[in-house]
Amino acid sequence: MLAYNKELLENGLLLTEAKRLFKMKFISKEQVNRVIQELPQLQTNTIFIRFGFFLLGLFLFSSITGFLVLFFANLFSSNYEVLIYFYAIIGVVGSEFFARKLFFKHGLDDAFVLSWQGMFCAAIGISFESSTLVFAVLFVVALLSCIRYVNTLSALLSGIGLVGFFFTLITELKVLSSMYLPFIGLTLAISIYAVYTKLNSNPNYFIYRNALLITKIFSLVLGYASINYMVVRELSESLMGIVVAKGNDIPLAYLFYGLTFIIPLVYIYFALLKKDRTVLTVGLLALGYSFFTIRFYYSLMPIETALLLGGILLFAITFFSIKKVQHKTSGITFQPDRDANSNIILNAQALIINSQISTKPFMDEGKMPFGGGGFSGGGAGESF
Question: For residues 184 and 169, is the Cβ–Cβ distance under 8 A?
Answer without folding.
Answer: no
